[in-house]
Write a structure and sequence with these properties.
about 280 residues, four-stranded mixed sheet, 9 helices, alpha/beta
């Protein structure tokens, strides 16, 4: 039988049992070397709780849609599990979408909150006035880089590759790390049931514009638990290489939820087309 759990239950269970185990590893290839930055289950749980509290402080209510426009990175996991912790619904947005595709997804889903990588922020700015968005949260890919790589990135690539943006004059727009630093340690409790919708994943099928498929907490928890059994995953021992993108149903379940459901370590690949890196 599928457990009577919601997605917001999975991470606290793993963090309570294995707080010091590495939950995720951000990996990047640069200058012929492979850099990595581990995040423990304790740290991940802390940031998720603070992000959920931040959303509540910004006025996000249970059932509200929060769109994620991010590649595979720690911020995606934090934003997704933080949204579920606050009772919200995650709307998965392909980071390859151009402005008109993002606009359709936002308007069709009814998303009022948008979490975006800084390198993609200009696309959001170009369509924001044509949507019902009330707030935007911006994150820079370097926030979870190891210190040496963060310095090299800031000096050599951040501005040239469009990661450095100025949001100071943009209304209702915040940096993710500023929100985490200023948030209460825990959000207010919310009632979420297994049959409640947790996620909208947009699928084009064969014709027409992409449509949001509604996935409940029960759908995704049972998927994750089933796959843990089928894979014979060794709890708090195995490592999962997360190459498939999290915005996709396969990546969301297998690459992100399965590791957390069994306290595995997920190794994140932001660009799956970089085959030497993989």
């Amino acid at each position: 039988e599928a457990p009577e759990l919601t997605l917001q239950d999975l991470l606290p269970m793993a963090a309570e049992k294995y707080p010091e185990r590495t939950a995720l590893v951000m990996t990047l290839a640069a200058a012929g070397r492979l850099f990595s930055y581990p995040v423990s289950y304790r740290r991940l749980q802390r940031d998720v709780e603070r992000f959920a509290a931040s959303l509540q402080g910004l006025g996000v209510q249970p059932g509200d849609r929060v769109a994620l426009y991010l590649p595979n990175c720690p911020q995606f996991v934090i934003a997704a599990y933080g949204t579920w912790r606050a009772g919200g619904i995650v709307v998965c947005c392909n980071p390859l979408y151009v402005g008109r595709e993002v606009q359709h997804l936002v308007n069709d889903s009814g998303a009022e909150t948008f979490v975006v990588m800084s390198s993609l922020y200009e696309r959001l700015k170009g369509i924001r006035a044509n949507t019902g968005l009330k707030r935007a949260i911006v994150t820079n890919v370097k926030e979870y880089f190891p210190p040496v790589l963060k310095l090299l990135f800031t000096m050599a690539k951040e501005k040239k590759e469009g990661h450095r943006v100025n949001i100071a004059s943009d209304a209702d727009t915040w940096w993710l790390q500023d929100l985490l630093r200023g948030a209460p340690p825990r959000p207010a409790p919310v009632d979420v049931a297994p049959e409640d919708v947790s996620t909208l994943i947009y699928t084009g099928g064969t014709t027409g514009s992409p449509k949001g498929a509604q996935l409940t907490h029960r759908n995704l928890v049972s998927n994750a638990k089933m796959l843990c059994l089928w894979n014979q995953a060794h709890e708090a021992q195995d490592v999962m290489l997360a190459v498939m993108p999290y915005f996709h149903s396969y990546g969301l379940t297998v690459g992100m939820n399965v590791p957390i459901a069994s306290a595995l370590t997920m190794v994140q690949i932001p660009n799956p087309r970089d085959m030497p890196h993989v």
